[in-house]
Amino acid sequence: MMNKKEKVAVERIYDPEEYFDKSGVTNAVREVISLLVENRPKDPIAFLSQYFASLVEEVSVIVRAQRLVCLTHHSRPAFPDNVISAYKLLRDNGLSGKIHNELLKGLL
Fold this sequence. Notes:
Blueprint: H1 4-13, H2 16-23, H3 25-39, H4 44-56, H5 61-69, H6 79-92, H7 97-107
Helix pairs in contact: 5-6, 5-7
């Protein structure tokens, strides 16, 4: 028979909200839903698949930033937000101006 403290510990392990928060699922789902709403891809299921695949792939920060910029056509309202997100990703990872130039070359 478990005591009260052990029972609380077991319940915490199985608390879905805590599990999702600690594992990063909550943030990933929020982000991808936001991206879906902003970018409105023609094939949302393929978009979701590519998004989640990119989370588990070990890709460089440059590739992740490039994917953000290429999510939607430059004429769409979400494009400036995607560029800002890509810039913040690069900046937060301490990448230099040289790396920013490499990204720009890859986009051209």
